[in-house]
Amino acid sequence: MPNPVQFGGCRVDVRLGSTGDMRHLLEGMSGDVLECGCERFAADATGLNEGVVDIPEHQHRGTAASREFHVNRRLQSLTLSPMATPPRLSHDIGARIRMHRERRGRTQVVTAGLAGITADYLGQVERGRKTPSAGVLRALAAALDVPVGALLGSHPDTSPASAVGGSEPLALALMSAGSTPVDPDELKIRIDHAWSVWQSSGYRYSRLLPELPALIRDTEATRRCARQRLEHRRVAACASELYGLLRTVTRRIGRTDLSFLVADRGMRAAEDADNPLCLAAARWNFGHALLMANDCDAAIEFAEQAAADVLADDSVCSDAPALAGALHLVAVVADARAGRYWSARDRLNDANALARRTDNANNIGHTMFSGLNVALHGMWVELDAGDAAAALRIADRINAVECPSVERRFTFTLDLARTYELRREETGTLLHLLDAERSAPEDLDRDPRARDMLRRLVRSPHSTSRGHAAKLAERLSVDI
Predict the structure, then answer these.
(1) pLDDT value at position 288?
(2) Three-state SS string across the chain, please?
(3) pTM assigned to the model
(4) CA–CA separation, 153 and 267 (whole Å)
(5) At what angle do helices 426-439 and 448-459 cross, to 10 degrees?
(6) Rounded distance, CA 332 to CA 355, Å?
């Protein structure tokens, strides 16, 4: 008898065979990926359609990192229950391929030729009638000069055409020589106000983006003017705070190229400020920049060292646990993205211990670290691991209203929508998308995950929520 396990929302039976090739991506009909140990394996489409994937004898030992199931010699093959296959994503992949192709002004014939496939096959992929294999997906990504993740929807789109309004003025301000110096006290008030808008307003993009270019220029001018004065360190600390804000703003508007620039500037400003709390917050921001590059091991090493440094500094003993806890959560995300979910859960326990040593809503370094934040990360880890039931159990203990950050509340609501989608409860998915629209309409409009969920709701042939989903899609101008 096969051994059933839960994997990515699917019921998976594992048995051991003696043929096949596991040196490729293991893709279900939806394009989902199964990881064994640190390698990623796949079977061909024929094997999956028959519900059987053979595992070669030389690779009998392996672990699916994201769900911790183990292949051993007593098992004979791997089957996927057709009753539990995840939602088909071929329409979404096809739409992204077409978007990137048209963005580069290329015809189907040219793109197909570069990828080594026929134009007819590419047309079927773009219309959602065919799901490309891993090899074809890699070839298409190379032909379109984008990461494979951009076609799968798991990688932020960083091409110039994807940047939302406000990104070019930011880039120009960052490259400018500055303007006229302002009073350091005024500068501090303006930066604190900018952070308040970003963390509390549902319309933070339209309110904040027009103000940032002038704030950047004034900060740079004031910092240069203060280099030989007593307030030099105070102005440098203000600059580090601003660059921390810019790191998260540029990430949200799709300019990860600018995110690395401002994260680095924030580190240098924090070093000039000679303030251990300021430096720890800047390192937290730089850790997130490493996560954006999917450099998980570097992010973990960087965050661990930064956490150890701030905890060892006697001058910041009262605030150190909050910053160290925020840095631990960087490592949590890195481990989860690398598929090391049990390690991520262990790190969450460490973060919880630090949260118990802090105030309930600690915003040291604008990290918003607290026990609530740890719980939000715990829910995300279980959701990323494909365990919707565990994610919901954690969600039941979360009161997101307590969180002063609109971004964290929006993320929690969107994760709930994703959880209900994984459980195939379409009404719950739609209700939480509508809730996200009420609390943070601009975030919902800009989030590609939300737009993809909405497309799947509208396209679902059996959904009872298609009408309401279509109206939401129309309000967000989502191309169905």
Answers:
(1) 95
(2) CCEEEEECCEEEEECCCCCCCCCCCEECCCCCEEEECCEECCCCHHHHHCCCECCCHHHCCEEECCCCEEECCCCCCEEECHHHCCCCCHHHHHHHHHHHHHHCCCCHHHHHHHHCCCHHHHHHHHCCCCCCCHHHHHHHHHHHCCCHHHHHCCCCCCCHHHCCCCHHHHHHHHHCCCCCCCCHHHHHHHHHHHHHHHHHCCCHHHHHCCCHHHHHHHHHHHHHHCCCCCCHHHHHHHHHHHHHHHHHHHHHCCCHHHHHHHHHHHHHHHHHHCCHHHHHHHHHHHHHHHHHCCCHHHHHHHHHHHHHHHHHCHHHCCCHHHHHHHHHHHHHHHHHHCCCHHHHHHHHHHHHHHHCCCCCCECHHHCCECHHHHHHHHHHHHHHCCCHHHHHHHHCCCCHHHCCCHHHHHHHHHHHHHHHHHCCCHHHHHHHHHHHHHHCHHHHHHCHHHHHHHHHHHHCCCCCCHHHHHHHHHHCCCCC
(3) 0.66
(4) 30
(5) 140
(6) 14
Question: What is the C-alpha to C-alpha distance for residues 416 and 422, in angstroms, rounded to an integer?
Answer: 10
User: Which pair of structure tokens corresponds to residue 25?
Assistant: 């991506």
pLDDT in tens, 159-195: 433 434 456 788 888 887 667 899 999 999 999 999 9
List Cα–Cα distances, 213 to 162, 169, 171, 173, 380, in angstroms.
19, 6, 8, 5, 33
